[in-house]
Amino acid sequence: MKGDRVEVVVDTGGDTKTYEIEATRAGRRLDIAHGRGLVEVTEVTRGGTPVRTARFMANRVIAMVEHPASQEAVADEVVPLRPVA
Hints:
The protein has strands at residues 5-11, 16-22, 29-35, 38-44, 50-57, 61-67. By secondary structure, it is mainly β. The strands form 2 sheets. The protein has a 3-stranded antiparallel β-sheet with strand order 2-1-6, with no helix packed on it. Strands 3-4-5 form a 3-stranded antiparallel β-sheet, with no helix packed on it. The protein starts with a strand and ends in an 18-residue tail after the last strand. A hairpin with a 2-residue loop joins strand 3 (29-35) and strand 4.
């Protein structure tokens, strides 16, 4: 969903570097996969086509934080569609 983002903190030797990957358009989501020494964060369309991919060496990743998009406030009361007679 647009607004989802993942923050990845990577060890770069004597320092750390932070990367932010964000779903940039409506209908896109972020998929996270890890295996074989890699961590991949991919922005994917509704149809499943990858748009962008960020790859990090798994032994260098210090932290990964997922930030879901903020949800719109939902009304607490139910409004009927037709007036009740």
